[in-house]
Task: structure prediction
Amino acid sequence: MPLFVIDEELKFPPVHLAEPDGLLAIGGDLSIERLLIAYKNGIFPWYEGEHILWWCPDPRFVLFPKELKINKTINNLLDKKEFEFTINNAFKEVIHHCKEIKRSGQDGTWITDEVEKAYCKLYELGYAHSAEVWKNGKLVGGLYGIKIGNVFFGESMFSKVSHASRYAFTKYVQFLQDEGVQMIDCQVYTAYLESFGAKMILRSEFSRLLTKLIPDKN
Result:
């Protein structure tokens, strides 16, 4: 299939035309309007060098909050209240830590300065959200993503001490469930998120759920 090139028009090709690896298009920008259209249609950006690549994999990796698995270690931490948990108290710090933290097997990060600026703007407009974990007054873990309708699109997380990101994810999924969120987009498979109960579903099913859970999807 040909790779679609995005121009100034705020429009994406149908997601079923994506490459087998999920790559749908290249180009465009990270304007708020374009990002919101992308997420509502199950499309997300990743940078490769200077180019913005837009993806919609099939199958899609998701977590349904009601299926969250909590292991014994996190259960113990929840009981002990070893960490302090907050929401939207340090978004800019969280995304910056996600950008800067070293990850095993990765040379860099897709979170460029442009990405950081765009998602901070989404936060200011109420679309992007963060969850933070603190220990002794210091930020030691967290995550961020986009919430639209009853869907949360997870983007990245970080941890500076053992179990901090796992604690943040567990607490935030519980919070999202209480808020009525019915699906968390985890984008692509990782064994880490599978341990929480995330699973693969067909892209067609993912798109159907987006239509159901985001009333103004189109």
About this structure: The first strand starts at residue 4 and ends at 6. The chain is about 30% helix and 30% strand. The chain has a mean pLDDT of 93.
